[in-house]
Amino acid sequence: MLLGYVSLGVIMILQINSVNRSMFWICLYLFGMNSFLNGVSVNTTVGFLEKKFNRRMMSTCHGMYSLGGGVSAGLATIFFALGLSPRIQVLLIAITILTVVYFNRKHLLAHDRIIHSGSGLKFPSLSILSISFLCMVLFMAEGCVADWSAIYLRESLHGTKEIMGLGYAGFSAAMTIGRLNGDSIITKFGSKRVVITGALMAATGFSIVVLAPLVSIAIAGYILIGFGCCCIVPVLFSTSGKIPNVSPVEGFAMVTTGGLIGFLTGPSLIGIISEKLNLSAGLSLLILLMIVAAIVAWRNKFLESKKLLTAEMPYDEQIY
């Protein structure tokens, strides 16, 4: 994690100072690869901490991630208001990251587990695929809200440009609030109930958005989607690292891959349907997918009630 975040800051500086397109593309590729590996590393470490202290903390960590996204958006607004160029903005953020990493290096280096997850490529088991599918649907929903909510409010419901971003803002606020309180919610009601209820809430939210006659009602639908989705991904990440006979790294990597596929392909798929029909029809696909996700979660045996899922069977993990 230490090297990952140091290199992330360096890549950000190189990216904004690219001298040609090739250098910029390479920096984008390295940034994406670095972010993926950092995500697997951090979530794996949180999974180990959950095992060690026998308590849930994944949702809170994801809540801080959501909070960071909101803070960064706010900072960008302030920076532009101050007349700072994008180059200066990125430089300030990169320096901040490197400074935080430097003063927390002892804590980051304390997590020195090296996990062997097997060599070569292999097809994931059905248990991983079902959780990966759930993650794909959730990331698809997040991607579509991020990419299409403003357009839907502006073009389909004829909202003003001043309020067209409130759909995503409400969604993000609900996600952050829900995740910061998610660990206690998951502990109280159990991961299976949280995922099923959350998926059905998100399906209801998308139904409200699609059928809404007014912008305000659609915004309320996006807020409901945020509350429905907020705890599902933390549950899936936490569960994927505790499946018997599966290394935590393998579980996190495969589930994250499914999520990234959904995040990248979802908005494009909605765009294709919208071009052929309309945006309401495209968003209706997410209603169906959320209902299917609830059914898959109900059938998944690794989403337990209230007790933390621990791997009683040995998996292919070697700690040096």
Which helices and strands occur, and which strands form pairs?
Elements: H1 2-16, H2 21-53, H3 58-81, H4 86-103, H5 105-109, H6 126-156, H7 166-180, H8 182-189, H9 191-211, H10 215-229, H11 232-240, H12 248-276, H13 279-299
Helix pairs in contact: 1-2, 1-4, 2-12, 3-7, 6-7, 6-10, 6-11, 6-12, 6-13, 7-10, 8-9, 9-10, 9-13, 12-13
Principal-axis shape: globular
Structural class of the secondary structure composition? mainly alpha
Bin the strand percentage.
under 5%
- Tell me roughly what share of residues is in helical segments: over 70%
Name given to the CATH architecture of the largest domain: Up-down Bundle
CATH class of the largest domain: Mainly Alpha
**What's the N-to-C terminus distance?**
17 Å
Would you identify the CATH H-level superfamily of the largest domain? MFS general substrate transporter like domains
Q: How many independent structural domains?
A: 2
Give the SSE string: HHHHHHHHHHHHH
Q: The biggest beta sheet, please? A: none
Mean pLDDT: 81
Tally of individual helices: 13
Low-confidence stretches: 308-320
Radius of gyration: 20 Å
**CATH topology of the largest domain, what is it called?**
Growth Hormone, Chain: A
Number of beta strands: 0
List keywords for this structure.
Growth Hormone, Chain: A, mainly alpha, disordered C terminus
Describe this structure in words.
- This protein has helices spanning 2-16, 21-53, 58-81, 86-103, 105-109, 126-156, 166-180, 182-189, 191-211, 215-229, 232-240, 248-276, 279-299.
- With 320 residues, it is an all-alpha fold.
- It has two domains: 2-109, no CATH class; 126-299, Growth Hormone, Chain: A (Up-down Bundle), CATH 1.20.1250.20.
- Mean pLDDT is 81; it is low at 308-320.
